[in-house]
Amino acid sequence: MNEDLKNETKAYIDRIKKTDAYVDYLNYKSILERQPELKAQVDAFRRKSFEIQAGHKYGYFNAYENLLNLRSQNNDLLNEAIVKSFLEAELKVSKMLTDILATFAEEVDFDLDFLQE
């Protein structure tokens, strides 16, 4: 990568890091990290949720039902204020990054159509 492009990329990343969504995410992450047992529970939930969603892309069935069951099994955890706030903030950042990457892929005519079913 040429140096100008690398510097512009770093500047853009700095802008992303200053967004309300990212700042909120870091704040909630920091609060959650001060409670290691709770963070471990949240991470286990996130890992399982990710595995279910990723598995769906590879032909595993019942992803929707499995996600509903996972949420039901973790209802108390998901209703804790800090957990709820963290997961909402994480989702906002995830959507923002997904949109950014999609825009990059579209604008440079990078073929990702093979990912569509």
From TrEMBL:
Species the sequence originates in: Petrocella atlantisensis
Matches recorded under InterPro entries: Com_YlbF (IPR010368), YheA/YmcA-like_dom_sf (IPR023378)
Top-rank lineage group of the source organism: Bacteria
One Pfam family it belongs to: Com_YlbF
Protein name, entry field: YlbF family regulator
